[in-house]
DNA sequence: TTGCCTGTTTACTTAGAGTTAATAAAAACT
DNA sequence: AGTTTTTATTAACTCTAAGTAAACAGGCAA
């Protein structure tokens, strides 16, 4: 069962930062692996094959830039996304970082919100989740026409309902945490009450008539026909 | 069925610019391909056959100008539109760029609005060529004669009304965001009030008498008979 | 000039999407 | 069992987006 948004390796020698980033990433459904120095980062990268590697530039044993260069020299990591954490707002360092093939850099002090939005942006890019018509058995979800069809019968959903259903149906079987749903459908900055998602889920269930959204108590929701 | 506004290849070595441009382009319905250096740009251009190529002049491996010359030497890219991104406001570079056959150049720092207006301007130019008569059931829309017929009865629409109806009817069922409508019918640089589109929609509905335009609240409008 | 048409804005109304709050039900935990 | 936590289900409320009518400015023709 694929339950994760993606695998992320964080390498930083400061335990506090490691903790904060790990907390935020897990919270949005990412699987997290951590390392405390350059060597460990490189070793764990090879072993766990993460989708994204977050590298602190200043680390013991090997700097982030060195790790990045090592990784990029191996074909297995040509496609892996890399984000640098730069302590100093040192432009030349940043440019050097990006030249070694990093996808983005975040300068400390880190704002978890900013960091997460960068991460999500990168993952959105590789997931190429462009508006595609979804077809699951007798159910079709067409974002272009903003139309849901069940057994060739049209069902009209409101905007939020549609977006929510589309998100879940994008990866049938995968559990979406409530936080993820909030971020994807509402946006990271919007604050809505705890019960709002439930209400929308209910409306979708009601309109579709079929039980295709399963509740995973204490975790979130998943689409299943 | 063609669902995209057009395909755009962006080549720039700065991830930030890539992201911003990609975001804005996707937002307005363009399909986006990206490249980070000259070689990748040329390779992806050949592979994906974009309608428009945005080339940064200063890029690793091959400069934008070199890529442009290479492309223009191939018959397949005689018609492809090319926009240069110039870091410096260097006149001689710009002139050289345009001499190699580029359609436009934008100098950094880039204003997304300006950039998009240039892109849309170029696309509008090539799209205007295909003014086809639309026939949907008992309704015909003839852009040449500027005439709408319903059950063989002529209906006189004003210019904006006609353009709006034509846009929607071009892809029946497809939802057009208000932004898209504004860009296509009015142009991106024009600023009109929030209710302007509604008023025109209303007039069309009134004149046609048939309910062929559906509103998707919070999203946009779509044509449907 | 007048008058008509188009395109736009303004102001008001309306519908209904989205949210909340309150209560009930269902798991999970002791 | 009882207690706590989490979700379901409503109904009520809020507030935004779209509908509508009227008015206004500019253009063009008679």
Describe this structure in words.
Two copies of one chain form a homodimer. By secondary structure, chain A is α/β, with parallel strands linked by helices. Chain A has two domains: 6-127, 3-Layer(aba) Sandwich (Rossmann fold); 134-223, Winged helix-like DNA-binding domain superfamily/Winged helix DNA-binding domain (Arc Repressor Mutant, subunit A). Chain A has eight helices and twelve strands. In chain A, the strands form three sheets. A five-stranded parallel β-sheet of chain A has the order 2-1-3-4-5, sandwiched between helices. Chain A has a four-stranded antiparallel β-sheet with strand order 6-7-8-9, covered by helices on one side. A three-stranded antiparallel β-sheet of chain A has the order 10-12-11. Chain A is elongated and about 60 Å long. Chains A and B meet through loops of A and helix 1 of B. The structure holds a DNA duplex (30 and 30 nucleotides).
What would a concise description of this structure say?
Chain A is an alpha/beta fold and 225 residues long. Chain A is 41% helix and 23% strand. Chain A folds into two domains: 122 residues, Rossmann fold, CATH 3.40.50; 90 residues, Winged helix-like DNA-binding domain superfamily/Winged helix DNA-binding domain (Arc Repressor Mutant, subunit A), CATH 1.10.10.
């Amino acid at each position: 069962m694929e339950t994760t948004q993606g695998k992320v390796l964080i390498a930083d020698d400061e335990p506090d930062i490691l903790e904060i980033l790990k907390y935020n990433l897990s919270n949005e459904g990412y699987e997290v692996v951590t390392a405390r120095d350059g060597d460990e980062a490189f070793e764990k990268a090879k072993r766990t094959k993460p989708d994204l590697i977050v590298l602190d530039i200043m680390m013991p044993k090997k700097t982030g830039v060195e790790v990045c260069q090592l990784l990029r020299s191996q074909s297995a990591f040509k496609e892996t996304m890399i984000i640098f954490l730069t302590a100093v707002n040192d432009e030349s360092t940043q440019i050097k970082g990006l030249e070694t093939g990093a996808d983005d850099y975040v300068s400390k002090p880190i704002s978890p919100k900013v960091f997460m939005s960068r991460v999500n942006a990168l993952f959105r890019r590789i997931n190429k989740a462009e508006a595609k018509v979804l077809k699951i058995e007798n159910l079709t979800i067409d974002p272009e026409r903003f139309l849901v069809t069940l057994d060739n019968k049209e069902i009209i959903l409101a905007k939020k309902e549609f977006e929510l259903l589309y998100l879940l149906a994008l990866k049938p079987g995968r559990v979406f945490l409530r936080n993820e749903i909030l971020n994807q459908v509402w946006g990271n900055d919007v604050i809505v009450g705890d019960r709002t998602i439930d209400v929308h889920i209910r409306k979708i269930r009601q309109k579709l008539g079929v039980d295709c959204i399963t509740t995973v108590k204490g975790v979130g929701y998943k689409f299943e026909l």
